[in-house]
Amino acid sequence: MVTTLAPLLVEIGATIEETSGILQYALVFVLAAIPLLEVLVVVPIAIGLGLDPVATGVLAFAGNALSVCGLVVFHRRLSEWWHARRGTDGAEKRDRYARARRLWDRYGLPGLSIGGPILTGVHVAALVALFAGSRDRAVIGWMTVGIGAWTAILVAGSVFGFSVLGLL
User: How far, in Å, CA of 76 to CA of 140, rounded?
Assistant: First the structure.
């Protein structure tokens, strides 16, 4: 799998490096919003290319978090359309699974929001949480916390790692 990702990583780095000024930071924002790239790939590459770590972190976080918010809104609209088409408001399902949903919201979502970005990607983790019945606002809130935590870790780790290697 690493050999299939290497050309993609090189291409991402080359694309960021070929641009200049504010366009580099705009690319960081856009690339961080793309599933599978996200902050885990974009932040170390951008910092390794010499972009400002704070600006890189802020823009990568914003791009990733906004794309997750868009995913949640899209999921909600699709669910509303589906329920309207089926002619049910989902009340019987809500009653039947209310306790399971409360337990998931209490314990499952925080763990998924912290582990999901590194294990599955934040977009997949958000979809899992939504399909498990978590509330939209809770998913957005917890995923934002997870993205923020991983962004901070990646920025600090990248700055430290590149400085130890003498590349910054």
Answer: 12
Handedness of CA 18, 21, 26, 31 (dihedral sign): positive
Q: Specify whether the CB–CB gap between 155 and 148 falls below 8 A.
A: no
**What does pLDDT average to in each consecutive run of 10 residues of the chain (168 residues)?**
68 83 92 89 92 96 95 85 68 54 71 84 87 88 95 96 86
Contact 106, 28 (CB under 8 A): no
Q: Alpha-carbon distance 69 to 75, whole Å?
A: 10
Q: Give the domain ranges of the chain.
A: 2-164
Exposed e or buried b for every residue in 19-38, given b needs 16+ CB within 10 A?
A: eeeeebbebbbebbbeeebb
Rounded distance between C-alpha atoms, residue 58 and residue 151, angstroms:
8
Q: What distance in Å separates the CA atoms of residue 129 and residue 42, rounded to the nearest whole number?
A: 24
For 80, the token pair is 């509303």
Task: Take residue 85 and report the two structure tokens written for it.
Answer: 């088409």
Rounded CA separation 49/9 (Å): 12
